[in-house]
Write a structure and sequence with these properties.
The chain has helices spanning 10-19, 37-47, 51-71, 73-80, 107-114, 174-185, 206-215; strands at 30-33, 86-89, 119-121, 125-127, 147-149, 162-170, 190-200. The protein is α/β, with parallel strands linked by helices.
């Protein structure tokens, strides 16, 4: 997850080596140092035991994502090498059903409004493995076979497509990069991962602390 001239963090090196594939590019909505109010929001919208809090945090998530997509639609097209075709979600590794981000009221409408040429496909990917079994991926443990795209009439709808893959948090990238790898293996032309928060640990990782000093006023 580094551009030319930047060092690649330890987690990225490990995930890339274990995945056995080049990492897909990552364009975060916000940097998310720990601790931070953004991290509280991105955990709270799906983890809070209070429904009102989940709804309040979800509204913030919607604004952050919708505003970013509307402002950077052209940049996203440029990063995937042309007009975006699909917008998908990284599935949860533990929660059944749709990814939490897809359950936030209004997110789909905002995606369609900001990226009118792309198809909103929140349930494009599904988890591999059996229900109740161990998660297909874990911290620093990617797996290119952990997810698979759903088929339409026997065909994967991602063949030749340029895909934006949305997620809430990007920590080590094991889950997001595994999902991107599944799309590429199914024939996607390019995949861009767009997490709302790219988690940084400046208290533990010198590279993160140095990055924040150089890029955050």
């Amino acid at each position: 997850m580094a551009t030319a001239g930047q060092r690649v963090c330890f987690a990225c090196r490990v995930v890339a080596r274990r995945l056995g594939l080049p990492l897909s590019p990552v364009e975060p909505v916000r940097l998310c140092p720990l601790p931070s109010p953004l991290y509280t929001v991105l955990l709270g919208y799906k983890e809070s035991a209070v429904a009102e809090a989940r709804e309040r945090f979800g509204a913030i998530v919607r604004v952050l994502l919708g505003t970013f997509l509307a402002a950077h639609a052209g940049r996203i097209d440029a990063m995937v090498g042309g007009s975006l075709d699909l917008v998908a979600l990284v599935p949860s590794t533990r929660r059944p059903g749709s990814a939490p981000l897809g359950l936030v009221d209004g997110v789909g409408c905002d995606v369609v409004a900001a990226l009118p040429g792309a198809r909103w496909a929140p349930d494009l990917l599904r988890r591999a493995g059996t229900p109740g079994g161990p998660p297909p991926v874990a911290h620093m443990r990617p797996d290119p076979a952990a997810f698979s795209p759903r088929t339409e009439n026997g065909d994967a709808p991602v063949a030749g497509a340029r895909v934006a893959l949305l997620d809430d948090l990007y920590v080590t990238g094991a889950r997001s990069q595994s999902a991107a790898a599944a799309l590429l293996r199914a024939g996607a032309r390019t995949v861009l991962i767009v997490p709302i928060g790219r988690v940084l640990r400046p208290d533990r990782i010198a590279l993160h602390a140095d990055f924040l000093r150089r890029h955050v006023a």
